[in-house]
Design brief:
CATH class of the largest domain: Alpha Beta
Structural class: alpha+beta
CATH superfamily of the largest domain: DD-peptidase/beta-lactamase superfamily
CATH topology of the largest domain: Beta-lactamase
Number of helices: 14
CATH architecture of the largest domain: 3-Layer(aba) Sandwich
Radius of gyration: 20 Å
Number of strands: 15
Strand order of the largest sheet: 2-1-15-14-13-10-9-8-12
Shape: globular
Length: 397
């Protein structure tokens, strides 16, 4: 191989991520993955990339390129990447754990757990609607003027929906941010501390956090804007709850392994993870679960690309409730995109086939580029809906 690769081993009790065994080597086409990775990096100007692939034979991490152009540091299995909105799937898991433990209910109004919002529109918006972006229409981002907790509460109290709750889907950071706040209140603790104690540590995610420890900062990739300038995630209200995690492809593979194992899980955390995959609303081919989004096998790759498009990110779309709520169909692809100003990420898994992929790049770029790389990897794994060319729809985060 042209690219340096280093073996990455998990901590005790966690999923091992390392070079393939003889059995898994038969599953992965390394040359095809490398070719697709280098093409992606060239087309999207990404200095570095981590690809994670999970199959029934094992887990692999493929590092490519540079963590920093300035220092020449190479990406390896320990390099930390910002994952943007993929962080929301962790927030949903913590919320589901609060529900599993009886500390909250999905039908609870948000104002029940954030009493500062009593008397506002959030008396009529449930935690489920926050977790499915169906609160009735909310901007993608908080206004730049919102910097303090008091300003945040004032913003929420002044918010007016564009449509009845449960009738439209509007992808919004303030929605999942409020879900995270309500969850921390329900569990009576600090959000980041609760996440570490109840989700990250039990899953063995030893390299995942909202704040990079001083001892690990040397492992942090430098992010690059689309214009090539350097940038890293800065603090903002509810950033942790909505898009604040840094992690590695290896840790994300462990998280996806836990999602795949959740079907048979008997622990509270396992049951919580399983519940986050259940679809509650449908918008076209997209089934909206608790942050996770999934597409039935018959939808095909072009509809998956359309479901991750800028229109789905930036515009409100009508939804239909799924009664009763539905687990992913046989062969369905469950996925989530994520980006910050300097990074782009994508994760997806197919429960029936027990395969998953992780893509982490240290430059912001259109989601469509990540989806084309994902299609190539899934195609190499024999996923039928990834066969053939995808359409040219632009993607959004």
């Amino acid at each position: 191989m042209m690219i340096d690769r280093r073996t990455l081993m998990a901590g005790a009790g966690a999923l091992a991520v390392a070079h393939a065994t003889a059995a898994s080597a038969q599953t992965l086409d390394e040359r095809r993955i490398e070719t697709a990775a280098l093409r992606f990096m060239k087309r999207n100007g990404a200095p570095g990339l981590q690809i994670g692939v999970l199959t029934p034979s094992g887990a692999r991490v493929f590092p490519f390129g540079l963590a920093s152009r300035e220092t020449g540091t190479k990406v390896d299995g320990s390099t930390l990447f910002e994952i943007g909105s993929i962080s929301k799937t962790f927030t949903a898991a913590l919320a589901a754990l609060a529900v599993e433990g009886g500390k909250a209910g999905w039908n609870d109004p948000a104002s029940r757990h954030v009493p500062e919002l009593k008397g506002s529109q959030f008396d009529n918006v449930s935690l489920l609607q926050l977790a499915t972006h169906t609160m009735g229409g909310m901007p993608l981002q908080l206004p730049e003027s919102v910097r303090s907790h008091a300003e945040l509460i004032a913003y929420y109290r002044s918010w007016k929906p564009d449509a009845p709750a449960g009738s439209t889907r509007s992808y919004a950071n303030p929605s999942i941010g409020l879900l995270g706040m309500a969850t921390a209140r329900a569990l009576q603790g600090d959000f980041a501390t609760l996440m570490q104690k109840l989700v990250l540590q039990p899953l063995g995610l030893l390299h995942t956090d909202y704040d990079v420890p001083t001892s690990q900062r040397v492992e942090e990739a430098q992010g690059y804007r689309r214009d090539g300038g350097e940038v890293r995630l800065s603090a903002a209200p509810l950033a942790r709850e909505a898009y604040g995690l840094r992690t590695t492809a290896g840790d994300l593979l462990r998280f996806l392994q836990a999602q795949l194992d959740a079907e048979a899980a008997t622990t509270p955390l396992g049951r919580a993870l399983r519940s986050t995959q259940v679809g509650h609303y449908k918008s076209g081919a997209l089934t909206q679960a608790l942050i996770w989004e999934w597409y039935p096998a018959e939808a095909g790759w072009a509809r998956l690309v359309a479901g991750n498009s800028e229109d789905m990110t930036l515009k409100s779309t009508p939804v239909e409730p799924i009664v009763p709520p539905q687990r992913p169909d046989a062969g369905a692809i469950v996925n989530k995109t994520g980006a910050t100003n300097g990074f782009g990420a994508y994760v997806a898994f197919i429960p029936e086939r027990r395969i998953a992929i992780v893509l982490l790049a240290n430059r912001n770029h259109a989601t469509a580029g990540r989806l084309e790389l994902a299609r190539e990897i899934f195609s190499s794994l024999g996923v039928p809906q990834a066969a053939g060319p995808a359409d040219g729809s632009r993607g959004g985060d």
